[in-house]
Design brief:
The chain has 19 helices and 17 strands. With about 675 residues, the protein is an alpha+beta fold. Strand 13 and strand 14 form a beta hairpin. Helix 4 runs antiparallel to helix 5 and helix 8 runs parallel beside helix 18. It has a four-stranded mixed beta sheet.
Length: about 675
């Protein structure tokens, strides 16, 4: 009896314990908590969107997708848009944080929602149920797109893989590049079909957001399929482990594939355009008024209600901030650093409004080249830019222009010799790029006629001018021993907070970043239209392809304050280059150009004549795989009290970039290749 009683007590204790263990832990969120109501879905989507591979203020090309705004700069990845003093200013040949592991984590979240939400369909109105599924497909399309343009063919994980699955189920090999782009297309199409026309909440996608990103992705796919063929030996190859064509397209399929993708890009862009939901920002624009056109484009990037914004990454102080102003503002606003984004003369030469030599470079002398004749003299540095496109002024701070209520003084040095003034160097070629102003006899010799400053403050050389002391370098430099001053004679204006009352600092900026805007959709339509015509294709929607391209470019140029095209764009390489050049100009300093150069296959030496969108002699700025960019440096002359400009390769913190054919596809992370029996490394590495 005693034994039975003990066993009964033990059974009662365990029975009681089991009952308590059936209570769900309060610190675990279940599907029933998240997937049965809109509040839960908002949390689920917020988690996914917080890990999306968007490129904004917290993306640096050298570092990759790691959501960090330290040293925030833009356009410094060997694109020729801007330069920076640090090691992060390097060609876009890879990312320190490869977009691989975190991509599959996000894919799992998207796949889980696609597979599991149908179990809770009855919890939502049909339109919201479809929208949530559409969000998941949009996320998956975006992730596959981000991977494809980095690696080519990738493992197409389109379902949830259980953690305890058999080994063969855990291993998913890389698909071919063509299969990968087809998956990107399929997922974008599915998201377009499911998403609502208007975002139900701020930050959510919608049908037209998905169409806009689809047009961008398909433009990339069509370009790669076509222009891989222009690379010596055809840019394609097979994985050693699987034999799959993991980069490039088959010789008998690339043409059909490129036409298909360009057609999809065109139709997606046209659907956005014809919807009438978006428009170019013109709130302050006025015809024949450069000042109004300039201010209109400045305001465009800060106006939260802009009709041009299609998809925006929002920030809110103090909970969600970035530090772009802390690192890329002019030197006088240093907080804690400065001058992180210094646009180049090469970028400036894309824009209208400057006198030029016969080779297309901007004129700084009255001779036939910048080594011939005498320097042109200006009463004020701003006079040099008096006819420049208003768009350029909205993107770039010129020497002597205003920013945050202050005149931005940029001066490379002071010349005290006699006028007229001959060019400071007799050789401005790539090979002479490392000759510096501080090595000139005019600076080192006796009598000294050139004054420069190694640093700011007490490091400034002083010149007596009209009874007053004048610092050799302007308040913002350049300083030849301090890379925190102005490196190129120009500063970035785009994205900076122009409010004079705003005090910059790390974690204090909260202006939004426009990830997709209407101007890009117009340019997507224009480029796809020209490419279809070049391929001998008829219009997919019955519209005149060349008229679509011409209207798109002219509408952007009109808003920019640039001259309209002389006639229609033609279905040839010259017409294609008009669109490419306009794209380079309009989307400069927006994380777009580095991808355009990759898909056009114009970064390696043999293709570099097309680097600028228009044809330029690559030997003017490169030597085989390596290349460099120039600044425009203002000097003050004491004899007349006027300024002259010198066009010279980057004077301070000179950067040399290098790009080879192998760099068009990033390497697969070595650890992933080593541990997997089916993941192939790139065939050319």
């Amino acid at each position: 009896m005693k034994r039975i009683l003990i066993l009964s007590l033990i059974a009662l204790i365990f029975s009681s314990a089991c009952t308590k263990l059936d209570i769900a832990p309060k610190n675990i969120v279940s599907d029933n908590d998240l997937l049965t109501n809109e509040s839960g879905m908002e949390i689920y989507l917020a988690r996914m969107y917080s890990h999306m591979p968007f490129e904004d203020f917290k993306y640096m090309a050298q570092w990759g997708i790691n959501f960090n705004s330290w040293l925030g700069a833009i356009g410094i990845s060997g694109t020729g848009e801007a330069l920076n003093r640090d090691g992060i200013c390097t060609a876009f040949t890879g990312e320190n944080t490869p977009y691989w592991g975190q991509a599959f984590t996000l894919l799992r979240d998207a796949n889980y929602l696609i597979e599991t939400l149908p179990d809770y369909k009855s919890s939502y109105p049909e339109v919201m149920y479809n929208h949530y599924l559409g969000e998941a497909y949009f996320v998956r399309a975006t992730v596959f797109y981000a991977m494809a343009r980095r690696f080519g063919g990738v493992p197409l994980v389109t379902h949830v893989i259980p953690y305890l699955a058999e080994q063969d189920k855990l291993e998913v090999p890389r698909s071919s590049e063509e299969e990968t782009w087809d998956q990107v297309l399929a997922d974008f199409d599915q998201s377009v079909a499911l998403l609502q026309p208007n975002s139900p909440k701020t930050g959510y996608a919608n049908k037209y957001v998905a169409l806009s990103f689809k047009s961008e992705a398909m433009l990339y796919a069509g370009s790669v399929a076509k222009y891989n063929e222009t690379v010596a030996g055809r840019l394609t190859g097979f994985g050693q482990k699987t034999g799959v064509r993991v980069i490039g397209f088959a010789e008998d399929s690339w043409q059909a594939a490129s036409k298909k993708y360009f057609r999809e890009a065109y139709l997606a862009a046209q659907e956005v355009i014809k919807s009438g939901k978006y428009a170019l920002y013109m709130k302050k624009w006025a015809a024949n008024d450069p000042e109004a056109q300039y201010q209109n484009m400045v305001d465009m990037f800060s106006d939260e209600d802009s009709p041009e914004n299609i998809y925006v990454k929002e920030y809110t102080y103090p909970t969600m901030t970035h530090g772009f102003d802390a690192y890329s503002a002019p030197f006088i606003f240093k907080a804690p650093l400065a001058s992180g984004t210094c646009p180049t003369l090469d970028l400036m030469e894309l824009y209208d409004g400057f006198d030029r030599y016969s080779d297309g470079t901007i004129r700084v002398t009255d001779g036939t080249s910048n080594t011939d004749g005498d320097y042109l003299m200006y009463d004020s540095p701003l006079d040099f830019f008096k006819d420049a496109e208003p768009r350029l002024r909205a993107y770039v701070i010129f020497p002597g222009d205003m920013f945050k209520g202050k005149k931005i003084e940029i001066r490379a040095g002071i010349y005290t010799g006699s006028e007229p003034i001959k060019p400071l160097f007799n050789d401005y070629s790539y090979q002479a790029a490392e000759t510096r102003y501080q090595n000139l006899d005019a600076y080192k010799g006796d009598p000294k006629t050139l004054y420069l400053s190694p640093r700011e403050g007490n490091g400034q050389e002083i010149v007596d001018y009209n009874g007053a002391e004048m610092t050799a370098a302007g308040a913002n430099g350049p300083f030849y021993n301090n890379g925190e001053g102005c490196l190129t004679g120009l500063y970035d204006r785009k994205w900076l907070n122009p409010d004079p009352s705003f005090e910059a600092g790390e974690g204090k900026s909260d202006q939004h970043f426009i990830l997709m805007r209407y101007a890009e959709v117009l340019l997507n339509a224009a480029e796809a239209a020209v490419e279809l015509s070049l391929g001998g294709e008829s219009s997919p929607d019955g519209d005149d392809l060349m008229q679509v391209a011409t209207d798109a470019v002219n509408s952007i140029r009109e808003r920019a304050g640039a001259s309209l095209l002389n006639g229609s764009i033609t279905p040839d390489v010259a017409g294609r280059n008009i669109v490419r050049k306009e794209r380079r100009k309009e989307l400069a300093l927006e994380h777009k150009t580095k991808w355009d150069l990759r898909r056009w296959r114009v970064e390696h030496y043999e293709g570099r004549d097309g680097f600028w969108g228009e044809k330029r002699d690559k030997n003017l700025f490169s030597n085989n795989a390596r290349y460099r960019f120039r600044g425009l440096y203002p000097f003050f002359s004491t004899e007349s009290g006027k300024y002259f400009f010198d066009a010279h390769f980057q004077w301070v913190s000179l950067k040399t970039f290098e790009y080879n054919i192998v760099d068009y596809y990033f390497a697969i992370p070595g650890g992933e290749v080593a541990k997997s029996p089916v993941i192939d490394q790139q065939p050319n590495r």
